[in-house]
Amino acid sequence: MARLKVKLGNLELQNPVMPAAGTFGYGEEYSPLIDIGKLGAVVTKGISLLPKAGNPPPRICETRGGMLNSIGLQNVGFDVFAKEKLPFLLSFKVPIIVNYFGNTMSEYAEGARRLSALEGIAALEANLSCPNIKEGGIYFGCEPRTVAKITNIIKKSTSLPIIVKLSSNVSDIYKISMAAEGEGADAISLINSVPGMVIDLETRRPLLGGITGGLSGPAIKPIALKAVWEVSSRTKIPIIGIGGIVDYRDALEFLVVGATAVQVGTGNFKNPRAMLEIIEGIEMFLEQRGIQDIGEIIGSLEL
Amino acid sequence: MIDHVIKKAMDNVVFLKGEIRERKKIGVLYHRLKIFLPQPINSITPGQFTMVMLDDGGETVLPRPFSFHNFEADNKVYWFDIIFKVVGIGTERMAKLPVGSSVKILAPLGNGFPEPPPHSKILLIAGGMGIAPLFALIMSLKTSTIPLWLLYGAKSQSDLICLAELFKVEGITIKIATEDGTKGRKGLVTDLLEEQSDEDTGQIVIYACGPEPMLKTVTEFAASNKIPCWLSLEKRMACGLGACLGCAVKTKSGYQRVCKEGPIFEAQEIVWEEDG
Which CATH fold would you assign to the domain A6-55+72-194+219-296? Predict the structure, then answer.
């Protein structure tokens, strides 16, 4: 059996496959359908200190090769998460990565502090790049200086590994990733959904309540692959590749361009077993080619 | 208050490869698929729904939600019907699925209609495709003694489906409205509510499904006549499991998931958007 174990800094995963935040709820929604214990990790729906209502409906719309969402980070908030959601997740023997976000710099610090005080969380994924939230007109993840500052204050607030989740919708993703790495980020998740829009020609109205949304699914895979390649070839910290992965070949492509692990998002919707099939597919691929360790695939791109 | 028991979706959801055993075109625009399962689902309640995943090489990215229109009346459900109108690439492809081909299904999802309280009468109000889950409810009540009224409206006569089967239900009173007047009263299904009010001689419960403006009018009618009213809502969905929060509907207690807290909601709980 090929070795599928990977490491995100000090965090060891039994395989490199996990859900993307927001597509897998808090685990319980999918638990009747798949064995969560077989995943590399679970990434939760994004949490904020206080509950968030989210954006007005309609919130989703299929597009060619993808879907747009304008959920608006609806979530139950820290307290309900800690009391009602986390205990269930901790019953599985896989690392629990809590995705979270803040509305201000100090909320990112406060969130990290409070989540670290909870028992059992393996790592935090700080969302610096939701396309549906603009506090005061600023995307936090757009500028190297801001990303450096947030990463710095988060790292000072927790001893948990910090994964910084970034958007590709920036002028230079490499510089922004370097800023996160420079301030001690343990890993980088690339990419968040890509800002987009859908309208109805008849009514001439946007099809989403939030007017614009985030594009995900196979349509964004090439964008994501490029971002992962660009960053991973020049940073030392591990990259988690995200964007349009629906089968094991997609996942392996991300590993080849340098991702250490992958997240599956939109792919879960049409196939709730997608992540398990990807894990099985990767294993089969490695065995068929006599590859002993998945590490041989990671960053093996030939130029 | 009537003590309704909302049948909560149990964790008996399955993800299976079903087989299309029958495909029937109904009128010009509608289709019915009969899907057989390799292993049974543990009971379905009318009002619940299924997600259909097309094996189309990725042409569709999301599954499509459909109410159960009809299903094996047993605790072990080996087959069910869905009906749909061709509205986009997903339904277009489904309308061409050959008999014998397979589709993946996720089912049963959501909560069914709550059972009517004892000694009540049932008023069903269907607009267009809204007949889909109400048909299942009517079939489940076929042999009961509960009086049934159905108000059924559509754009035109050709949009009224399953009428023959509905008329076969013993003791059901059916009133029809079409917008173009080709069958029944000319106008909206909700216009039929005027004729309905003075027949109120006992406890009535309303179950309704249809376009939002219709449901809004039904809700107002129910409120002013103090009639308990349950609506089956429809929204675009991605996961069907309550994970993605894509199918949110505004209610008096905040946004709720149509797939999980719904698709059946108590009418007075819904906060209607300004322009439906």
Answer: TIM Barrel (3.20.20)
Q: Note the pLDDT tens digit of each residue in B122-156.
A: 999 999 999 999 999 999 998 888 999 999 999 99
Backbone angles phi, psi at A188, to 5 degrees: -130, 135
Q: Please tell me which of the candidates B12, B235, B244 has its beta carbon nearest to residue A23.
A: B244
How many interchain CB pairs under 8 A, A with B?
A: 106
Residues of B with a Cβ under 8 Å from any A Cβ are 11-15, 53, 58, 60-63, 90, 104, 106, 235-250, 254-255, 260, 273
All domains of chain B, ordered by start, with CATH? Answer: 14-109 (2.40.30.10), 121-269 (3.40.50.80)
The predicted-structure confidence for B96-113, as pLDDT tens digits, reads as follows 999 999 999 999 999 999
pTM of the model: 0.94
Distance linking the first and last C-alpha atoms of chain B: 29
Query: Which residues, in sequence order, are CB contacts of A165 under 8 Å at separation 6+?
Result: A21, A99, A125, A126, A127, A128, A129, A141, A188, A189, A190, A192
- Separation in Å, CA of B260 to nearest CA in chain A: 10
Say how far apart CA A21 and CA A101 lie, in whole Å: 11
